[in-house]
Amino acid sequence: MEKARQIFTPKILASTGMDVKKIVEKRVMEEIRKYPPFKRVLIALSGGKDSASLLHIIKNFLPDKDIVPVHLNLGIDGFSEKSEEFARMQAEESGLELTVFNLKKELGFTIMDAKKLYPKICSVCGGIKRYLLNKIAYESGVDIILTAHHLDDFLVRMLKSTLNAKVEELIRFKPYLPRNGNLIAKGRPFWKVSESLILRYASFESLSFITERCPIGMKKNIERLRRAIDILATNENQKNIYLLSLMKIAEKLEKTEVGMGKTQLRPCSSCGFLSSNVICSFCIRVKKIRSFIEERK
Ligand SMILES: [Zn+2]
Q1: Which CATH number fits domain 2-262: 3.40.50.620, 3.40.50.720, 3.40.50.300, 3.40.718.10?
Q2: Which of 44, 73, 175, 275 could form a disulfide with 280 if both were Cys (CB 3.0 to 4.6 A apart)?
Q3: CA 290 – ligand 1 centroid, Å
């Protein structure tokens, strides 16, 4: 019995902390070397292990880059304060100064306020974060935004799009997106690294990070998908194989009519950032949330 268990233990689980360190750093740096040259890079620090590990790797391997660590304080009770504290600690540990964008101070509302208007807050929150990171990057002359989406995030996202036949979403989620006008280039260099490997990496490197997950949102479906993926793919390699298959499907779809008929982007009539609508979804939502708060006063 003992022997059988040993045989079926995935290699990655049997590896040492030093092996994990080498694998993670190699995979991330291989990805980053594929990007067009860049000098100034924004790293979105949430306070968690993933972005802490990303900052740690960039700082160690690319010391000549101009790193701008940014944290978005979303105003989530009992969570955002602590997240900001950890993000600050992570930036300090790398000898960098953290830029904090506080939603309440800058926009006049928190994600808790937005949730009252948008109960399915996760996608709205994601959209607000993407918009703000791009705006901050654009205004600070950043060449590329790096986020810490990992292998499991990619699998969940792409599988969800496939199961719901959301073809455009499936095509859009990529490890690298080049710059398009005032939309800054985006890189997700952890796409070949699983969450468990990042956790081991962050622990091995003794990085400080928040362990709590965001307490709000309707994430039950996502959790179920995560569990299903863990059942389907029992090791790192299998996860990579499944993700590559989903990407192949996305690539093929991109070449069909659905992919070719991509919506033309134009400057939002309110803020000027490129959008598929006359007014971008960020501007529409901010306006709605503000009048919602105003009405309730
Ligand atoms: Zn706008």
Answers
A1: 3.40.50.620
A2: 275
A3: 15
